[in-house]
Amino acid sequence: METDGTHSRRTFLKAAGATMATVSVAGCTGSPKDTSSGGGDGPSGTLMYSRGARNSTLDIHVTTSGEDVKVTNQIYDKLIDFKPGQNQITGSLAKEYTLDGTTASLTLREGVKFHNGDEFTAQDFEATYRRLTDPEYKHYIGKKNVSAYSNIVFGQIKSVSVVGDYELEIELTKKFAPFFRNLAIFAGGVLPKSEIESGTDFSTTAIGTGPFTLDQYEQNGRQIRLRANENYWNDGPEVSKVIFSTVGENSTRVSQLISGKTHIIDGIDPDGVSRIENNDGVSVQQKVGLNVGYLALNMERMKPFRKKSVRKAMNYAINTKVIVEEIFSGLATQSSQPIPESVMGYNENIDPYPHDPQQAKTLLKEAGHGNGFNMELAVFKNPRPYIPSPIQTAEQVKSDLSAVGINAEISQMSWEPYLEYTQTGKHDACFLGWNTDNGDPDNFYYPLLHPAVESPDGQDWVSFDTDGYQTTNASGWANQEFMSSVEEARSITGSVQEREGLYREAGKLAHDEAPWVFLDHTNVLRGVSNSVSDYNVSAVGGPFLRTVSVE
Amino acid sequence: MASKWFVVKRLLLLVPVLLGVATLVFAVLHISPGDPARVMAGQRASQEQVEMVRQEIGLSDPIWVQYGRFLADTAQLKLGESYVLRPNQSVASILKNSIPTTIELAVYGQLIGILLGLPLGVISAIKQDSITDHITRIGALTGISVPIFWSGPIVIILFSVTLGIFPTNGRIAQQYFLSDTWLFFGHELPRTGLITLDTLLLARYDAFVSAVRHLVLPASVIGFYSMALISRMMRSSMLEVVRQDYIRTARAKGQGERITFLKHGLKNAFIPVITVIGIQFGTLLGGAVLTETVFGIEGIGMILVDAIDVGDYPVVQGTVLVFALLFTLVNLGVDITYSYLDPRIQQ
């Protein structure tokens, strides 16, 4: 026994020693060969897009993340799409589309093939629609998985009928003007029926009719490689490969762009902008975003905010010019109303509230708050596109408010708990923002300022606890006049002018009633290498990479 | 020599350990604020949608029902599906993808630690109180005292940003994509997930170089820390051994210093060091949380941090359980090794 033990101990030690030696030798000899090709296959034919986050999934029916969509937008086509770089829609898989009352008729494009070779028909759309909305359907995605976009994109649909292989008739529950724009949202992408019904896992595979096919989904979505769809029905694609990669650090992405290791980057901070501008061969492309950043004043929790003059005083007290020009380095514009300029119904006669502490004090005095009051100022910690420096913004607001006698206490939270906090109305005032889904004014006015419930008589706010309350309305505002304008406007399917007029009024009303402190509309920024041509920065529906070519 | 009973007993002890860990992580998750249903449903979801999600994932059930269900599922090795991080994907598959990453990093870190720590410890002991010894000891003290969340960014600033020698983050340069399978005498075998091994198996030598370059900084940071512990242990163990009678005997009979130290001393001094190396390996797995976060490497450590951030209960629970399991198994391995090295130790 003793000998055996000794023996096995020696053998063990020897074996361990030998393994260690082999490993270390292998480690030494492995490196010198083949180092020359470290630079990779270079830009020709391959477009490289670097961003800060990875994909969590490829399933357009599950995701709510803008990061995920950057990739799926290359793979899936929708019936309707946005025009590259513009806030306008155009037919995509649908050649023609008309909305007559509550009936939408669509004629589909013929001869379009999915990446798996299937021919695209109206049945594919029907199956896609049922996957997302119909619990009776065998291949329904499941209540747990279905994203809020199910409601946004298809929520107004009563029924979908396949009239022929290339004819669809969609019946809506009521007249709804933004319907076609909603079909252009990413979740409106069309999946092939055969793959839905064979149980394909769409979270890591993607099969659409789009300009690029999925080649590899690597490292849990950190690296994604697409290949050109050579049978694509529309213009493009111009590059044979697209690589999406994840580089967490903002400054590293900028360095990669400058050193030619990537072609397009997003998530650029002011520091990155100046670095890019100081380098040849790369440039910053920007466009006013279809977004808004604001400070929502919770009228349910904070009694002073129930007085219009106090809300206006808040707008006068806060120096949004400094926020936009200094804190956001001029990469944003001051906001005067809930929608930015390129959205229909923008009222150019409204100016942003000027910074006027005196006026603010007067208004506060009139309202009986001459000595100010105490309030909480809730803010999220990490940058969001519409408020790129949240903490500094909150500090600025705090100091502006203290100048007119209002004592604000900042409370910081990370995004997820923050959402829950603000949507359940626990805040006094909170910073929030919104990126549009479809570029329609309804997509700002309705979710952000309409409570979706009736307000009690003679009261222009409602409680967050009201059954059916729209939680994205973070101020509790429920102005009857505003509500009816917005409701009417969303139901006008005939005259665009009439709709536009109603939104112009709604914008004026929101400005005057001031349920928010209107802060900013940020620019959409992309760092682009000069070897890239025909890339259009898009504020909605992008990135459009099919027309892009690389030298 | 470890008896079978010892191993069986230790494996049985895993059950209460894991039960305790499971209970603790469940309690902490449910006590801490945050509503996963709200996060899952997203900013645009209505109250009804949030409520529907909450019911679907069972969060509206009484807490003891949820606890019971969690234990029952875990006992059957059902770790559930991710809520937010990788919606729809099973926690098992997420872990399967990320565990090799963490293990690879820990193994390389440990290798660096051993290869540097052992010789330094021996030298330090042989030349006790010399300048070399002092420098080594100061180095070791620094290694133990400097936390990874500080040394990580410092080496990134130095070697990546300033000198530009090594990449800052990730596992491999962005242009490399590896195919999912490799050929072994005509058979397609799946990748191992160990990127340095995979690139070699796929005969992608340029990708291998890239993978190694990406590993250098994180593995060194971990390695420095473990080198510090190993060299200290090696030194003190060596010093203890050289005071033993048999060393004095060896010297008395006129044997050369080199053979006395290396042949008689070193071997015996190894025993406690091996233990430290083993235990250290477990700690390295834990240290992965910091290292992976700093270097943007997607192993279980980073997954855990991300999952905690968004309140992805199933992923947090699964990851913590796997950590606990790995740690316990490594410790068991150490105990077994110990009895191999020193037969006097009865277990």
Protein traits:
heterodimer; A: 551 residues; alpha+beta; D-Maltodextrin-Binding Protein, domain 2; Dipeptide-binding Protein, domain 3; 2 domains; 12-stranded mixed sheet; 4-stranded antiparallel sheet; 16 helices; 20 strands; 31% helix; globular; disordered N terminus; B: 347 residues; mainly alpha; MetI-like fold; two-stranded antiparallel sheet; 13 helices; 73% helix; SBP_5 (chain A); TAT_signal (chain A)
Brief summary of the model shown:
The complex is a heterodimer of chains A (about 550) and B (about 350). Chain A is built from 16 helices and 20 strands. Chain A has helices spanning about 1-30, 65-75, 120-135, 150-155, 180-185, 195, 250-260, 270-275, 310-315, 320-325, 355-365, 390-405, 415-425, 440-450, 480-490, 495-515, and strands spanning about 45-50, 80, 90, 95-100, 105-110, 155-165, 165-170, 210-220, 225-230, 240-245, 265, 280-290, 290-295, 330-335, 375-380, 405-415, 430-435, 515-530, 530-535, 550.
Structure write-up:
- Helices cover 31% and strands 21% of the residues of chain A.
- Chain A is of the alpha+beta class.
- Chain A folds into two domains: 6-29 and 43-281 and 530-550, Periplasmic binding protein-like II (D-Maltodextrin-Binding Protein, domain 2, 3-Layer(aba) Sandwich); 291-522, Roll (Dipeptide-binding Protein, domain 3), CATH 3.10.105.10.
- In chain A, strands 1, 8, 9, 10, 11, 12, 13, 14, 15, 16, 17 and 18 form a twelve-stranded mixed beta sheet that branches. Chain A has a four-stranded antiparallel beta sheet with strand order 4-5-7-6, with helices on one face. In chain A, strands 2-3 form a two-stranded antiparallel ribbon.
- The longest helix of chain A has 28 residues, at 2-29.
- Chain A is globular.
- With 347 residues, chain B is mostly helical.
- Chain B has two domains: 18-91, no CATH class; 101-341, Orthogonal Bundle (MetI-like fold).
- Chain B contains 13 helices and two strands.
- Chain B has helices at 4-31, 36-41, 47-56, 63-75, 91-126, 131-145, 148-162, 195-201, 205-242, 245-252, 257-295, 300-310, 313-341, and strands spanning 181-184, 187-190.
- Chain B has a two-stranded antiparallel ribbon.
- In chain B, helix 7 crosses helix 9 (205-242) and helix 7 (148-162) packs across helix 11 (257-295).
- Chain B is globular.
- Chain B starts with a helix and ends in a 6-residue tail after the last helix.
- The chains are: A alpha+beta (551), B mainly alpha (347).
- At the A-B interface, helix 1, helix 4, strand 8, strand 10 and helix 13 of A face helix 2, helix 3, helix 5 and helix 9 of B.
